[in-house]
Design goal:
Elements: E1 21-26, H1 38-41, H2 44-58, E2 64-68, H3 77-94, E3 98-101, H4 108-115, E4 132-136, E5 139-143, H5 158-168, E6 176-179, H6 190-193, H7 200-207, E7 212-217, E8 224-228, E9 231-235, E10 242-243, E11 251-256, E12 259-265, E13 270-276, E14 281-287, H8 288-292, H9 307-313
Parallel strand pairs: 1-2, 2-3, 5-6, 6-7, 7-9
Antiparallel strand pairs: 1-12, 4-5, 8-9, 10-11, 11-14, 12-13
């Protein structure tokens, strides 16, 4: 006979871990002018309002709202004003700042005037990236404009990366969150993969060994996580609609979903979570290879999207 082995005691539950900062990330809002419904009837304004109600009603202590691009579907000034009418009252309710980042659907001049409060600008400002630095107590948030007018894929200039290296040379007390629209990690969906950030190794060299704790992106319309230079990368789902990563072979399907992200920053780790706002009905179901032909380098020789290509990929 053998005696039963003693059962080890179960460790006591540790004290609840509380994040030092909680950010709400809203991405790919795609707002349009009043009365318009893009993509065959998606009420992107209602989706944004749903997100705002969820955040306001949660009672969560939110340190900041981070909007990671494609905020207006076609860069319309009126669409940016509709965005502010929802987001800024929410920010006041939370007592939190709003941090805006450019996406490929945004237009720099209108973005600066309507969201950043810039004075009426000359045309030359449309060629200057909207990069910025924000502080929430000891947390630094660095925003990079990864867009190039006329292109749907992402790119960062040598000057932007030099500016980023200079900024990161001075560590922040609670670290840095890097924000840009285009993901520097692959997408499993072909039409998204064709539109991600180009030359990601250049960004990796700029952030390697820095105090960047997480990189927040959008653009893909699906949630993903990865690593760049050992730094977590979080790709937020969209509030407008979602990409179906299990589309049938050869198809690129979108879902009538709405979601945002909650980013919890602890002293020794960062946790990113999806907040689902709507069920997942099919929105459109297109031929994948046909869509791919219209994206960036697949569209024309110089990489610019044709008008037909923009319609196919919107």
């Amino acid at each position: 006979m053998t005696s039963a082995l003693p059962v080890p005691p179960v460790p006591a539950a540790p004290p609840a871990r509380v994040p030092r900062y909680t950010l709400i990330q809203l991405s790919d809002v795609h707002l349009v002018d009043d009365g318009e419904l893009p993509h065959g009837g998606v009420d992107t304004h209602a989706n944004l309002e749903s997100a705002a109600r969820a955040v306001a009603g949660s009672g969560t202590a939110v340190a900041g709202l981070v909007l990671t691009g494609d905020l207006a579907d076609s860069g319309s000034p009126a669409a940016y004003r509709r965005l502010r009418a929802v987001v800024e009252p929410l920010a006041r309710h939370l007592g939190a700042p709003v941090i805006y980042a450019m996406g490929n659907h945004d237009e720099r001049t209108a973005f600066r005037r309507e969201l950043l409060g810039a004075a009426p600008a000359t045309d030359s400002l449309s060629t200057i990236p909207c990069d910025s630095v924000h502080w929430i107590a000891g947390l630094r948030i660095v925003v990079l404009d990864s867009t190039t007018p006329g292109y749907d894929s992402g790119h960062l200039t040598d000057a932007q990366l030099a500016w980023l290296r200079d900024e990161l040379a001075r560590p922040a007390p609670d670290g840095t969150v890097l924000v840009l629209h285009h993901p520097p990690v692959p997408s499993p969906m072909l039409v998204v993969e064709l539109m991600t950030l180009r030359e990601t190794d250049r960004l990796a060299r700029a952030v390697a060994g820095s105090d960047v704790r997480i990189i927040l992106c959008g653009h893909a319309h699906h949630a993903s996580c990865g690593l760049l230079a050992g730094i977590p990368v979080w790709v937020s789902p969209a509030t407008a609609f979602g990409a179906d990563l299990l589309s049938p072979a050869g198809r690129a399907r979108a879902l009538r979903t709405a979601a945002c992200s909650r980013i919890d920053i602890y002293p020794h780790t960062v946790v990113a979570s999806v907040v689902t706002l709507a069920p997942a009905d099919i929105l459109f179901d297109n031929d994948e290879s046909d869509m791919a032909r219209h994206i960036d380098q697949a569209a024309t020789g110089d990489g610019r999207l044709t008008e037909q290509g923009r319609a196919a990929c919107s």
